[in-house]
Each structure stands twice: as C-alpha cells, then as structure tokens.
Amino acid sequence: MGNILEVDPQHGAAIEAALSHNLRTILADDLAAARGLLTGKLPVAVPELTRVDVTPVAHESSAVGLVRVRDERFSALVRSLLANVLIADDLDAALALR
After folding, report:
1. Is 7 helix (H, G, I), strand (E, B) or coil?
2. Is 90 left (phi over 0), alpha (psi -120 to 50) or beta?
3. Is the pTM above the cut of 0.90?
4. Gap between the Cα atoms of 94 and 14, Å rounded
5. pLDDT in tens, the chain (98 residues)
6. ∠ CA(78), CA(49), CA(11), 5° rounding?
7. What are the φ and ψ backbone dihedral angles of 57, each rounded to 5 degrees?
C-alpha cells in the first residue's frame, strides 16, 4: 500500500504510525495478480497521482486529507483506514481533542 500513497514530509511519520502494518499490504486486482507480485513475475505499477482535497480545521487535520492516493481504485480503502484519524499540530491540541 505504501507505493500508492503520497504524504507531505511533515505528516509522514504520523500517517505511517496511523497505518502501521497496513503499509505493507499488497493491493492487487485479484489473487493471481497478488501472487504474481509476490513472486516477482509481474512488474509493480505505480499509477498517476490522484489528489484528495479537504479543508483543514484549526490546529488539527483529518488524516484522509493529508494523503494523496495514486490509484483511485484504492481511495475508499485509504479513507476507511484513516476515517477516524486526526493529526494535531502539537500535544496540547491533541489532548484537547479528547
């Protein structure tokens, strides 16, 4: 999954922490394609970038709006994984969210 995401450097660590082990997920159209990717029989394609726009809120941002997905087929998956994740400017802002 990490190959289909783009994140600005200042948010990279936060998005990486939020997605955790999901970043290593293999995304493929079907089981045969997944096996081909795992065995190296199929090349890894990196599709064109799709921008996800969101209006930021003061002192916090929705993680979904900070990630750009290169393949629209997987946008819903990324939105689902990051749906409840907010990125705060600092610790005080994060604690205020509780």
Report:
1. strand
2. beta
3. no
4. 12
5. 778 899 988 888 889 888 888 777 778 788 888 788 778 776 666 555 444 444 444 456 888 989 999 888 888 888 988 988 988 888 888 888 77
6. 55
7. -100, 150
